[in-house]
Amino acid sequence: MSKKKNYLAGNRILPKGITESISITELVDDTFSAYNAARLKEVCHLFKEKMLDEEVTIGLSLSGALTPAGVGLSCLTPLLNAGFIDWVISTGANLYHDAHFGIGLSLHQGSPFTDDTVLREEGVVRIYDILFDYDVLLSTDAFFREIIKTDEFQKEMGTAEFHYLVGKYLAEREKALGLESSCFLSAAYKASLPVYTSSPGDSSIGMNVAATALFGNKLKIDPSIDVNETAAIVLGAKKSGGKSGVFILGGGSPKNFLLQTEPHIQEVLGIDEAGHDYFVQITDARPDTGGLSGATPSEAVSWGKVTPDALPNTIVCYVDSTIALPIITAYTLANHAPREIKGLYGKREELVEELKKAAKLS
């Protein structure tokens, strides 16, 4: 019997013309018909229809220069406030640049074709087509050094606690400046959402922590705390009868740190577990170069990072995150009611204790 009908069972590509009154839902559902537009539509549907179920705990990873482009204000804070993100792993750079907005500093649209030698002479810094005064860096550095010197930072801690305290000071600064919108770390503090950094020394935040340590500051960041807390969050979600979803923007170290929670649970701690249940990645990285950034969900199955049965619920979309994320944000906010915020920051110690009880180290 011919299988032709099976192959031709998809919706016919016959979109209506786009009008001036089209909604984000109509734009995605009716005109994103093929290629990575179709993958982006699939991401929107998977996120809305399955990942945003109350039982799913969603971990988000951030890499690439997203917050300087305003993504923290336009997308991340609204997603967080709607309960659509439950915990985060980010590069330190994204959190450092997020802080610019929290302390009222300015970044500007510009050209990627400006003479960088002239920019250096004029004291202007460039991130592709984003331009800002060199003093933005100096002022942000001074902000971090100022708060790091306070008593509550004089101890060893994980990055979730560090960022929670930073978020508190950013929230206070926003209030003092009368800023209408919250930067991401400020919003995360208010929502008790844990934010981790996979490489705490690899950013201007880490450099300022190191600089203060030269002069006797007692702050020390312990990455082992983060490894155990993130695994505990995932195990807690699964053992309570729920599911774990990963939402990956870019790749790099944050992607691996998000996914390695399952090997840490299974391979290292010897706990019976199967892998993450949902996997969405927005990336421009190729799989054939062997890097983790481009590694596919099916490859992740071989490591125990993704549940084998979950492969139908995995999507990789090859598009710029600054294009995809605003569309995903607008689509899901328009089509899904807010979820209750889980407030996982305040549950970390309890979850780690449960992880210790379940561990079967030889």
Annotation keywords:
six-stranded parallel beta sheet; three-stranded antiparallel beta sheet; alpha/beta; 13% strand; 11 strands; 362 residues; globular; Deoxyhypusine Synthase
Walk me through what this model shows.
With 362 residues, this protein is of the alpha/beta class. The chain has one domain (13-358): 3-Layer(aba) Sandwich (Deoxyhypusine Synthase). The protein is built from 16 helices and 11 strands. It has helices at 4-7, 24-31, 35-51, 71-81, 92-102, 116-122, 134-148, 159-177, 184-191, 204-214, 223-239, 252-259, 261-268, 297-302, 321-335, 348-358, and strands at residues 56-62, 87-90, 108-109, 124-127, 130-133, 156-157, 195-197, 220-221, 243-249, 278-283, 314-318. It has a 6-stranded parallel β-sheet, sandwiched between helices. α4 links the parallel β1 and β2. α11 (223-239) packs across α13 and α11 crosses α16 (348-358). The longest helix has 19 residues, at 159-177. The protein is globular and about 75 Å long.
